[in-house]
Design a protein that fits this description.
Layout lengths: L4 E2 L2 E5 L5 H15 L1 H4 L1 H11 L2 H9 L4 E7 L2 E12 L5 E9 L8 H15 L4 E7 L4 H7 L3 E11 L2 E11 L2
Parallel strand pairs: 5-6
Antiparallel strand pairs: 1-2, 2-3, 3-4, 4-5, 6-8, 7-8
Helix pairs in contact: 1-3
């Protein structure tokens, strides 16, 4: 499936040449959105751990994560990453990251990103989407509106005394 074109919204498949852009967007979005949810110290720790060049390159090359840059009116406004065939039955597409600049939220772009990932998921014979979301993240309501349901809650130790206190959510393909 080629990149989605919905003027003025577009998704463009990223390559390792886009790592600096993904890192910058990740830093900008996380520093604006997450301090009230998890605190600034944990935000900086997680950014250093997950959004440095080596970590993003490993996600793309070694872990097989697909990244797409979200563009709105020609400007880079977010990104999504995912991989196929997760879960016990290897039949889920896992959304690892789905982020938009706060100024772009509420325009239906996130829903379009999920819809696009779902289309690719179907093409790859997966039957559902899954993702993690922090239990205190307002995006939980966004995922509920899109038909995601909570499967379980998890607390993941990420080191340095920090945890990710998340819900694992899923949605069968529509």
């Amino acid at each position: 499936m080629s990149a989605k074109n919905m003027a003025p919204f577009e998704l463009k498949e990223a390559t390792t040449n886009d790592i600096a852009l993904i890192s910058r967007l990740g830093h900008d979005i996380w520093r604006e959105v997450y301090p009230p949810i998890i605190g600034s110290a944990q935000v900086e720790y997680m950014l250093e751990k997950m959004y440095n060049y080596a970590a993003l390159e490993e996600q793309m090359k070694d872990l097989g994560h697909k990244f797409f840059i979200a563009m709105y009116s020609g400007q880079d406004v977010g990104f999504v990453s995912f991989s196929f065939h997760h879960g016990e039955l290897a039949n889920r597409t896992r959304i690892h990251k789905l982020y938009l600049l706060p100024s772009m939220q509420g325009k239906g772009l996130g829903a379009q990103m999920v819809k696009y990932v779902e289309a690719l998921s179907k093409e790859n014979n997966d039957v559902k989407l899954e993702l993690n979301v922090n239990k205190n993240n307002p995006a939980l309501h966004f995922y509920n509106r899109l038909g995601f349901a909570i499967e379980k809650d998890v607390v993941i130790d990420i080191g340095n005394g920090y945890v990710m206190d998340d819900y694992v959510m899923f949605r069968l393909h529509q």
